[in-house]
Amino acid sequence: MSAVGVEIPGYGVVGRAPFTLTLVHAVALLLAVVSLAVVLWHGLDERGVALAFGILIAVGELTRWSGAEEREPAPLAAAGALAYALLGENAGHRTDHGVLEIVAVVVAAALIGCVPHVARGRGPTADHLTRRVLTVGFAAVCFQPLYNQGRLMGWGGPSYALLLVSLLVLTALCDAVLAAAMAHARTRWPFGPLLRDELRATLGIGSAVCATGAVMSLAVAVVGLWALPVFSLPLLLTQLSVRRYAAVRVTYRQTIASLARATEIAGYTPTGHARRVAALSRAVGRELGLSEPDLTVLEYAALMHDIGQLSLVDPVPAGATSVLSADEQRRIALLGGAVVRQTGVDAEVAVVVERQADPYREQPVTARIVRAVNAYEEMAREAGPGGPLTALEKLRLATARDYQPEVVESLARVLLRGTLTLPQAG
Description:
Blueprint: E1 6-8, E2 12-14, H1 19-42, H2 47-62, H3 75-85, E3 89-90, E4 93-94, H4 99-119, H5 126-148, H6 158-187, H7 191-223, H8 227-260, H9 262-265, H10 273-288, H11 292-303, H12 326-343, H13 347-354, H14 365-382, H15 387-397, H16 405-417
Antiparallel strand pairs: 1-2, 3-4
Helix pairs in contact: 1-4, 1-5, 2-3, 2-4, 3-4, 3-5, 3-7, 4-5, 5-6, 6-7, 7-8, 10-11, 10-14, 10-16, 11-13, 11-14, 12-13, 14-15
């Protein structure tokens, strides 16, 4: 089961964008066009402030990272845009820029900063720019009208700082809801788990972005625009640390994938079997609402679920261990778990591998998923052209004893959507 799709970092491969997603993109585009048109017609009210923040946002976009491990690829640009949206004073003098000017400057700076990435073929997705425009517009609408009307004149000191932090937290929450809604519209995965993962990511680099945005806004209000480069440095260092951690995770996953190929190289399993099981297992886990850490454990266990077959003297035909006796399957699973533990991989991954041959009612949900998906892949491969339907029917008939019904039905929904591109055999 495969289909032509578009790869979304962190979310998999999906098909054409639905109407809801197109509508959100259209709203962001309309806001950006109207803001740019108004600014071009009337000009900038605060040219020096707009230039300083525009340069900061452009530099933030230039230093963005296209890796899939970061939910916010350009934290410096995000912090600068939020600080600009919540800016009321510049070195003690009131500013006069409005919401449309803020959005126009952010859009122009983001587009300029994206030019080198587009030239290298790694430009930002429409989702990235849409979120940037809508979140900045939301923050500016919440703050600028109140400030320009003098509603915040009596706010000072801790109360004013608390107001900025509260608005940034509210903006971060809205951005998480927007990101989860866009991912849900594109992939049809459950909204709740997607929102939970976005909120968990917000506690990481998102908290640093909000804190830097608040400090920048307060510092510029007191000492002027010279505060921008000073307070940008800590976030740049944080971004560098996050990227190094993400690079370690990528290397870690590549190592696990290389270990999983040992059974293919030795001729115990068909080429691409482990990767197909891992891709399908992760999609089923998403469908069932597993959290991001559980999905990572599930993917690693699916990649290494056949590693115990290296203990066999003679390979099982096509690597289909389902034809073996229950005792032999359990022995292979335990040996596989022992191998995983020796490699230094997370103990949770070893537990999932070890529990493959247990009755499904005694297994953790991750082991149930790997067991069902592995059986489906083996049955579908053996059944020929009608393999997918035949394999699903066999799985459904065995739900009373071998496979959890909810897992099988989730697998059926993933396959029915036809939005996952799997590695081909051979």
